[in-house]
Write a structure and sequence with these properties.
This protein has one domain: Rossmann fold (3-Layer(aba) Sandwich). It starts with 9 loop residues before the first helix and ends with a helix. The chain is α/β, with parallel strands linked by helices. Helix 2 packs across helix 5, helix 6 packs across helix 7 and helix 7 packs antiparallel against helix 10. It has an eight-stranded mixed beta sheet, sandwiched between helices. Keywords: Methyltransferase, S-adenosyl-L-methionine, Transferase, tRNA processing. It is an enzyme of class 2 (transferase).
Length: about 325
């Protein structure tokens, strides 16, 4: 059913969101798709006091959502599925794997459920929620085989970069839901966001021998750290955000790009970036055996708060921190 917007509340303007307003005008066809296929595919998420927020008391059981309670199957979570091209292609090719599309835009949700229904897919569900909250609290620890974050909103203006999804707290949330050996796959066509992603992965990873991060949280391994340091440099142009010369991480490491993930179909969105001359950069982190603990998360958040305070007082912050915290 079309979403009902709640009354305005403090949460709408106090919470830093990684997505813009998730409404959008639905066509009659989209309304019909939601009415026909929504009950089958859309997972109901109790909200807090703003649209797409997640009630802190909410606990989702993926096995129940997919209709096989107690049977543990591989689970892939895609954050920001858009029209669902990537996740639906993989779901059709791998019927023994469950695929959860976390998406906030209702027009996109309508397309995903319509296409899933027409294809007769049983292994797809759509979760209409803020991914940063969903992964941090509602889903079980260690429930996912993979998490995909493909082409998240780059929030290109400096004052908006605090809204970028990929950050240290989000890395902690991903670590929380990934099983040991599980993969976090990322991709972007904006160079400065790729560098930010790389810096986040370095800070949360045990790096290959010979590379030393400035802050190591052993929730991940980053096997491609330092790989292809010159990627995108050959197409550098002044003031271009899609390409550029890698400035290096806080640890002094350049590169860190993975081979293109073969399981990601070439979407129209990615093709547009290629056509416009932007370099597509993939990144991959692998979950270690290190148990996730809330205490570990609090340590990361406390570190971010200290860095933000230092930035406001004229000190240096983590990569991307000065732009994010100093933005209005």
């Amino acid at each position: 059913m079309p979403q009902q917007h709640p009354p305005r509340s403090h949460a709408i303007h106090a919470r830093v969101r990684s997505f813009s307003r998730a409404g959008g005008r639905l066509t009659d066809t989209q309304v019909a798709a939601l009415e026909e296929f929504g009950p089958r595919y859309v997972v109901d998420v109790p909200r807090d006091d703003a649209i797409r927020t997640v009630d802190p008391a909410c606990r989702l059981d993926p096995t129940a959502a997919f209709g096989h309670v107690g049977e543990v199957r591989p689970l892939v979570i895609e954050v920001g599925s858009g029209s669902g091209e990537a996740i639906l292609a993989q779901a059709a090719a791998n019927p023994g794997v469950d695929y959860a599309a976390v998406e906030v835009w209702e027009t996109a949700i309508a397309k995903i459920v319509r296409d899933a229904g027409r294809a007769g897919l049983d292994n797809v569900r759509v979760i209409p929620a803020d991914a940063s909250q969903l992964l941090a609290t509602a889903l079980p620890v260690g429930c996912a085989s993979e998490v995909w974050t493909f082409f998240p909103d780059p929030w290109r203006k400096p004052r908006h970069r605090k809204r970028r999804l990929v950050s240290a707290p989000f890395a902690d949330a991903v670590a929380r839901v990934l099983r040991p050996g599980g993969a976090w796959r990322l991709a972007t066509d904006w160079a400065d966001y790729a560098w930010q992603m790389r810096d986040v992965l370095e800070a949360a990873s045990a790096l290959p021998e010979g590379l030393e991060a400035d802050m190591t949280q052993a929730y991940f391994r980053y096997p491609d750290a330092g790989r292809e340091p010159e990627q995108g440099a050959e197409t550098w142009e002044a003031d271009s955000l899609g390409n550029g010369i890698d400035p290096g991480s806080p640890a002094g490491v350049r590169g860190g790009w993975s081979p293109r993930f073969e399981g990601r179909v070439l979407t129209r969105f990615e093709q547009r970036g290629i056509d416009e001359g932007r370099t597509i950069r993939d990144l991959t982190a692998v979950r270690t055996e290190e148990p996730w603990t809330p205490e570990h998360r609090e340590t990361v958040l406390a570190e971010l708060e200290r860095e933000a305070a230092a930035s406001r007082n004229g000190g240096s912050g983590i990569a991307g921190g000065a732009d994010a915290e100093g933005a209005e």
